[in-house]
Amino acid sequence: MFEIFRFIVDTYYKTMDMLFMPIVINIHPALAILIIAFIVSFIITLATKLLVDQERMEEIKKRIKEFQVKVRKASKDPELMKEIEKEQEEIMKIQMEMMKMSFKPMIYTWVPIIAIIAYLKHVYGYNGVLHTLNPSWNGVVVYLPTILSKLLLVPFFHWLGGLFYRGGFGIVSDEALGWLGWYVICSMATSTFLRKVMGIK
C-alpha cells in the first residue's frame, strides 16, 4: 500500500517538475512562488465565479446588512425588537445558504491547493530540489521591510512555528520569509486582486 502511495507521489512530483522546473531553475524563488500563487488563485477565483451565484450572494449580503442595521436600532425601539425576533429565523436560513455557497468551490479546489503546497515544499523546503542544487541556500525567499514584517506579525509567526517545528532551515531574521510565508502573502494578494477583477463580491 505504501509503495503505491509513494509511486503516486513520485509521479506527481515528476509531472509537476516538467511543468514548473523551468520557472524554478531560471527565476528567483520569490517571483516563481508569486507566479504559482497567481495561477492557483486564478483557478480558485474562476471556480468561485462559475460555481457561486454572485447575484444571489449579493442579495443575501444586502439582506443581512439591513438586518444588522435594524438590530442596532432595536435597542431603542421595543416594537422593532419584536419585528427582529420574527426575522431571525429567515436570517439564519439565508446565512446557512450563504455558508453553503461559499464552501461549494472548496469541494473542488482543496485537493489542488494541498497538492500545490506539497509541491512547493518539495522544491523550496529543507533538502528540497533547490536546497539540493544549492546546499548553501538558507531557505530565505524574500526579505520584507522591517515595518511590513511587524505589521504582518512575522516575528510572532516565527515564534509560533518554532513551537511546533524542529529542524530544517533556521530563522535568519525577523524580516526573512521562507516559501510558505511568502506563498500565503502572494496568495492573499493575488486572490484579492482577481476577485475584484472578476467582480466577485
UniProtKB/TrEMBL annotation:
Subcellular location(s): the record lists:
Membrane
Tell me a GO cellular component: membrane
Q: How is this protein positioned relative to the membrane?
A: Multi-pass membrane protein
Asked whether the keyword Membrane is assigned, the reply is yes
Kindly list the residue ranges recorded as spanning the membrane. 20-52, 101-120, 140-164, 176-194
InterPro entries tied to this protein: EMC3/TMCO1, MJ0935
Instruction: Write down the superkingdom of origin.
Output: Archaea
Sorted keywords for this record are: Membrane, Transmembrane, Transmembrane helix
The answer to whether UniProt assigns keyword Transmembrane to this entry is yes
Coiled coil stretches, renumbered: none
What is the name attached to this protein's record?
Answer: DUF106 domain-containing protein
**Species this protein is from:** Methanofervidicoccus abyssi
